[in-house]
User: Which sequence fits this backbone?
C-alpha cells in the first residue's frame, strides 16, 4: 500500500511545484564555441570586406573581339591624321602660302613615291636608323655605369651631378662645330654628337630611378648577401627599372635628335646619305616637297621606334609591378 508523505518534506515539495517555481528564471545557456559547421562570423565579415576591397581595386573586363580592340586603338590616331591632312589641304587650297612654299599632301606623297621608285628611300632610312641604334647602344654602355657611379658615390655625385644636368639641357647642335674640329667630316663626328646628347639623359634617368628605391630593399639585399655587382644586378637595377626605362626613352629621343642635327651639318660624299642629309639636300634645291618628305620620314621613324620597342617594354615593366591591369 502506497504511503503519502506528510510533514515538512511534503510542504517543501508542494512549495517547489507551485506558481513561484514556474516564474523562476532559467539559467543562461553556455555560449557555444564556433565549429567547422558554424564559422566565426567576425572572420567571415572580415574576409568579405577584403574581397570587396579587392574587387573595387581590380578592373575586370570581358575579353573583347580583336577587331573591336584594333578599332579602339587604331581609330583615334587615324582620325587625328585625317584631321591634320584635311587642314593641310585647306591651307594649300586657300593659298595661305604660295604653292612652291607649301605643297599639298599629294605633292609630298608623290615626292616619296619618286624616292621609292628610285630605290633610294630605304637606304636613307637604314643609314640613319643604323647610326642612331649604334650610337644609342654606345650611350647605354657608357651612361649606365656612369649613372650607377653618380647615384651610389656621394663625392662623385657632388662633382659630376650638376655637370650631367647641364649637359642634358645643352642643345646637341652646339657640339657639332666642336666635333667637326676634333674629328673632321667623318662618322666619328656624328657619333660623338650622339653620345654627348644621349649619355647625360640615360645617366640622369638611372640616378633618378636609384633615388626612388626604398632603403628597405637595399638593406634586405645586403642581408641576403647581395653585394657588389651581384647586388647591382639583382637588387639595384630591377628596383630602379622604371626610372631607368624613362631615362632610356629620353636617351633615344636625344640620340635621334642629335643624329639629325649632325647629319644636317656633316655632309660628305663618303659618309652616305641619311635622313638629315636628305633634308639638307632638299633645302639646297629649294624643294619643299622634298623637305617635307624628309621631315615626315624622320617623324615616322621616331614614332615607330617608340611604339615597337619602348611602349611594349614600359607596359611589361608596369604590369610586372601591378601598376597596369591586363585586360
Assistant:
Amino acid at each position: 500500500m502506497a504511503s503519502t508523505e506528510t510533514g515538512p518534506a511534503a510542504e517543501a515539495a508542494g512549495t517547489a511545484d507551485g506558481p513561484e517555481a514556474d516564474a523562476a528564471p532559467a539559467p543562461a545557456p553556455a555560449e557555444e564555441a564556433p565549429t567547422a559547421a558554424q564559422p566565426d562570423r567576425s572572420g567571415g565579415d572580415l574576409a568579405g570586406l577584403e574581397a570587396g576591397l579587392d574587387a573595387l581595386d581590380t578592373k575586370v573586363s570581358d575579353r573583347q573581339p580583336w577587331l573591336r580592340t584594333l578599332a579602339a586603338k587604331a581609330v583615334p590616331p587615324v582620325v587625328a591624321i585625317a584631321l591634320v591632312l584635311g587642314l593641310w589641304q585647306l591651307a594649300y587650297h586657300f593659298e595661305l602660302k604660295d604653292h612652291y612654299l607649301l605643297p599639298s599632301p599629294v605633292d609630298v606623297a608623290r615626292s616619296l613615291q619618286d624616292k621609292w621608285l628610285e630605290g633610294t628611300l630605304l637606304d636613307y632610312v637604314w643609314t640613319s636608323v643604323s647610326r642612331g641604334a649604334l650610337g644609342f647602344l654606345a650611350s647605354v654602355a657608357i651612361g649606365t655605369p656612369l649613372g650607377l657611379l653618380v647615384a651610389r658615390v656621394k663625392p662623385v655625385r657632388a662633382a659630376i651631378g650638376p655637370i650631367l644636368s647641364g649637359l642634358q639641357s645643352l642643345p646637341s647642335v652646339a657640339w657639332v662645330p666642336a666635333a667637326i674640329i676634333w674629328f673632321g667630316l667623318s662618322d666619328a663626328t656624328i657619333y660623338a654628337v650622339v653620345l654627348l646628347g644621349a649619355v647625360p639623359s640615360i645617366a640622369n634617368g638611372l640616378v633618378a630611378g636609384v633615388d626612388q628605391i626604398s632603403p628597405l630593399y637595399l638593406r634586405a639585399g645586403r642581408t641576403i648577401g647581395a653585394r657588389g655587382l651581384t647586388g647591382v644586378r639583382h637588387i639595384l637595377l630591377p628596383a630602379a627599372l622604371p626610372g631607368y626605362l624613362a631615362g632610356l626613352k629620353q636617351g633615344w629621343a636625344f640620340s635621334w635628335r642629335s643624329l639629325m642635327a649632325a647629319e644636317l651639318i656633316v655632309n660628305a660624299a663618303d659618309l652616305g646619305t641619311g635622313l638629315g642629309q636628305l633634308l639638307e639636300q632638299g633645302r639646297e634645291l629649294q624643294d619643299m616637297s622634298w623637305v617635307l618628305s624628309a621631315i615626315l620620314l624622320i617623324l615616322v621613324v621616331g614614332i615607330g621606334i617608340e611604339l615597337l620597342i619602348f611602349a611594349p617594354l614600359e607596359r611589361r615593366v608596369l604590369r610586372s609591378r601591378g601598376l597596369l591591369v591586363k585586360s
